[in-house]
Structure formats: C-alpha cells, structure tokens
Amino acid sequence: EQKPTINFGAGPAKLPQSVLLQAQKEFLSYNGLGISVLEMSHRSSDFTKILSKAESLMRELLNIPDNYKVMFLQGGGSGQFSAVPLNLIGLKEDRCADYLVTGTWSAKAAKEAEKYGKVNIVHPKLDSYTKIPDPSIWTLNPSASYVYYCCNETVHGVEYNFIPETNGVVLVSDMSSNFLSRPVDVSKFGLIFAGAQKNVGCAGVTVVIVREDLLGHSLKECPIVLDYKVQAEMNSLYNTPPCFSIYIMSLVLEWIKNNGGSIAMENLNKQKSSMIYDLINNSDGFYVCPVGMNCRSRMNVPFRLRTEEGDEALEKEFLDGATKRGMISLKGHRSVGGIRVSLYNAVTLEDTEALASYMKEFQKEHM
Ligand code: PMP
Questions:
Q1: Can you tell me the ipTM of this complex?
Q2: pLDDT one-digit tens code per residue, 258-307
Q3: What span, in angstroms and rounded, lies between the C-alpha atoms of 177 and 104?
Q4: Catalytic: 14?
Q5: Partner of 70 at 20 to 30 A CA spacing, among 62, 184, 299, 318?
C-alpha cells in the first residue's frame, strides 16, 4: 500500500490539496471559456478579474492600508534584493542603508545593496546564524534611507517575533518564508516583499507591498521592470506578469480566507511548530536545534542529531526512514546540513503529527 506523500520542503512547497484540485478542474477551460489561464491574454477581462481578485484578497487578509500599493512582479525574492536599493536607497542624498544580517538571505540582500550605495551592518557580525542580536547593541544610522531585515531566515530557522524600531526610518522586510503565516501590521513598514512559493502559491510571482510616498525615487539605472512607480501605476502590467502563478496565488489566498485568515494560520502554525520544538526540547539531546529560544522559526525548524555538529550517518538513516514513510524534502539546506522541517500554511496538523510520531519512534530505536 502506497503511503500518501507529505511534503516538508522549504520551497517551492506544499500547496493545499483543494487548490490543486480546483486548478486541475479549471486547467483546460477556465470559467467555461474553452481556454486555459495559461493561454489567456494578460489584458483580457478574465485575467483582469483574476488579478484584481488576488489584490483584493491580499488587502483583506493583511488589512493593507489604502496608502499602500500591492504589486505582483517577477524576479523572485532575489530580484527584490536588487529592486529594494534601486528604488529606495536614493530616498536620501547619502545613499546609505542599514541591514540586519541574521542569515543567508539577508546577507545576500546586503551584498546586492552594496552595488548601489553604502551599506551599514547594524550589529557585530554573527559567527553563526542562530540568534538575533539584541536591539540594544544595534547602531542604526538616523540618516539611512531605510532599515532592512529578513523576517524569517529560511535556511537557519531564525524568525523575528518583533518589529524592529527604526525611529522613523523606512522599514523594509523580506517576508518570503513567513508571509501570511501570521497577522502583520503593514502600517509599520515602508515595504514588504515575499516570493509566493512557500505560503501563498507557486514560484514565479513575488508580492511587493509598498507605501505610496516611497515611489518615484528610483536610481536612473533601475531596470524599468523593477521600477516600483512604473509597475504600481500600471497595476503590475507594465509587461506580461506571471499570469498562471498569480492565478494559483488567488486560489491560495481564497483558501486562507476560507480557513480563517491570518489569525487562524498563526494558531495552526504555533501548534505545529511547538509540537516539533517540544519534542526536540524533551529529547534528552538526541535532537539538537541550534537556534536561540527567542527566535525559533514557526516555519522552518532546523535540527541535528545527537550533537550540534550532527551525526551524518544517523541523519541519513533518519532521512531514508522518513522517505520510506512518505515524508519528503526534510534534508537541511546544503550550506548547513542536518534536517529541516518546513511547516508552511498548507502543512496540516496531521502531517506534523505523522512526523512527530516518526521522530519519537526513531529516537527510541537509536537513543
Ligand atoms: N528570501 C528568502 C527568505 C528566501 O527563503 C528565499 C528563497 N528561498 C529568497 C529570498 C530568494 O527567493 P527566490 O529564489 O525566489 O529568488
């Protein structure tokens, strides 16, 4: 008997089954039109409806204030590592930006920003990405154009459970891997971006939410497809948008809404992640999570077996055993090794329980 597959991948990641079924049902003929969304003009009235439905659901689910634009762009999170400085570093004449570097993704973003201005790393360099330096030791530059941080470091499993205080400087956040996994007060931010392929859809579309008064300051070398003012004015249709990815995202947003919105997602994600962290904490050191207690991610749970450095042979056995039980994509990022469990919105409580019971069983056998 074939066990159902449970996907714990870090992204592209699991999608709700009902979304896949609906996309399948509508695949050949959307809305009785006789053509697929894949074949539809991005300027047709049917696609326009999909686009505006995605935007209005996004606004509703995140309670986005009216003075913010919502864009659906291409180029991924990595494209935004460039787009953010290209559009915002010129907000002030000094062309300085403050970066909090708490993992792989914020490090990449800071490196990209250096091409366009002066980058100040706000805190002493970390020797391992397992904590968030206390704000009391940050040296924020009051004349920075913006302060940048990555809200959830996908590789290292480090998540902010607070919004940094910037004393009026524009705040920018990469929320690629915890977007819509919990409520967020958008009004505290100048800009939020997120690739869709973890919590809100498939790869190809990147959500950008930006406060209107920040538009119109792009550097002259900013590629036009990345220019927020142009894309905002054209309603993300300066050029052909990732139509099918936007369609899938609209289905996922509807699924989030029907399942109780961001508060319900947060409750579910708290339950799932505490189930795994409690098990780790109570494993007598068999499972080791290197991340500080106050910044453990609800989305990505990294751990090693037996020691902080991990027992690689045993980890391989763990992964092989998981695969036999249909639990896939649990291997840690190639840069850190070990195990990583990703618990995005579409991963159910039952999925998580299945993993937890395997973890308990595996520990009993190998302790
Ligand atoms: N930021 C974060 C937090 C990510 O997890 C990722 C990808 N895993 C990226 C940015 C880069 O996204 P992309 O691959 O879509 O460029």
A1: 0.99
A2: 999 999 999 999 999 999 999 999 999 999 999 999 999 999 999 999 99
A3: 13
A4: no
A5: 299
Beta carbon of 174 within 6 Å of any ligand 1 atom = yes
The two beta strands, 68-73 and 206-211, are antiparallel
Could you tell me which residues come within 8 angstroms of residue 119 by beta carbon, excluding any fewer than 6 positions away? 96, 97, 99, 110, 113
Amino acid residing at 340? R
Ranges in the chain, pLDDT < 50 = none
Angstrom distance (rounded) from CA 55 to CA 326:
36
For residue 75, the one-letter residue type is: G
Cβ atoms 345, 268 nearer than 8 A: yes
144-164 pLDDT, tens digit per residue, is 999 999 999 999 999 999 999
Main-chain dihedrals φ then ψ at residue 292, nearest 5 degrees:
-55, 145
| Angle separating helix axes 17-25 and 243-258, nearest 10 degrees | 130
Alpha carbons 103 and 108: distance in angstroms, whole number: 9
Closest atom, ligand 1, to C-alpha of 203: 15
| Residue 31 DSSP class | G
Cα 166 from Cα 144, distance rounded (Å): 10
Alpha-carbon span 193 to 38, nearest angstrom: 25
Q: Is there a catalytic annotation at residue 255? A: no
